[in-house]
Design goal:
46% helix, TIM Barrel, 17% strand, alpha/beta, eight-stranded parallel β-barrel
Length: 272
């Protein structure tokens, strides 16, 4: 998917919501555990109930890898279902990969060719040759971890080296890499005060912003500091939507939670 198609979806749906599909079998409704594939059964109902409110879905691959082959199969079925039934949806493999060149090339093939995701999250710690293999794929996006929402972000990302915070160096350096136009960046919603600085360094890039909802991030603060002329934001919510209820009504409850965020987004978009 090219960036303009994502922008078109945002304005069509009046939403820049990304829903994280972080499926924990200990948290999904008990009646689904009787299904042959409870993970996919859960995802399918969540997707069917919320697809008109969201422009992207983001499965965190760790929640699938934890269940071995059956988990990976559920991930495969989920992305196939999305691509077949809702091809307009932007899909993100939240895998946080990053390794030496030939290994990164294989990771990129796994997510972009075999599973046909539109984007994958990547850790930049190993530098240029660990990221460029992902950037080589046409009409695919690499979402680089820039400034994350966890407490440990302050261990390295905001440390000053050579007179500048590390996350700023990551942002500036990444724009010099080959095919850097395919980059997007992760910036946590709980770091909203940093968003304006991030936006000044990557004015045209999309930012994936997790942490709104359960982690305490504020949507209005994120938009005030992070929006650009093409919106330029994908705001992710996971637990606050998919676990809105643990009962038979879980899909309807997820839709209600998603609609609450979408309506807030619509107000912001209409005011642009």
């Amino acid at each position: 998917m090219i960036t303009q198609e994502l922008v078109d979806q945002i304005y069509q749906k009046k939403s820049f919501l990304c829903i994280g599909l972080d499926v924990d079998l200990d948290k999904i409704p008990e009646h689904l555990l009787q299904e042959e594939d409870p993970i996919f059964a859960f995802n399918k109902q969540i997707i069917d109930a919320t697809h008109h409110l969201a422009v992207a879905y983001k499965p965190n691959t760790a929640f699938y890898e934890a269940y071995g082959l059956k988990g990976w199969k559920a991930l495969e079925k989920t992305i196939q279902y999305l691509n077949k039934k809702y091809p307009e949806i932007f899909t993100i493999a939240d895998a946080k990969r990053g390794d030496i060149g030939n290994t990164s090339s294989m990771y990129a093939k796994a997510f972009f060719e075999d599973l046909s995701f539109d984007a994958v999250t990547v850790a930049p710690y190993m530098g240029k040759d660990s990221v460029e293999p992902f950037l080589a794929f046409e009409n695919k996006h690499t979402i680089l971890l820039a400034l994350t929402s966890n407490k440990g972000a302050f261990d390295f990302q905001t440390k000053i080296s050579e007179g500048e915070q590390m996350y700023k160096q990551v942002l500036k350096t990444s724009t010099t890499w080959h095919n850097s136009q395919n980059l997007m960046y992760v910036v946590g919603a709980t770091k909203a005060t940093y968003l304006a600085q991030v936006r000044s360094l990557v004015p045209d890039s999309f930012l994936l912003v997790p942490g709104v909802g359960a982690q305490g991030g504020n949507l209005q603060d994120v938009c005030t500091n992070g929006m650009n002329a093409n919106v330029g934001l994908l705001v992710n919510s996971s637990r606050g939507i998919i676990y809105a209820s643990s009962g038979q009504d879980f899909a309807d409850s997820a839709a209600n939670a998603a609609q609450d965020l979408q309506q807030q987004m619509q107000v912001i978009l209409d005011a642009m």
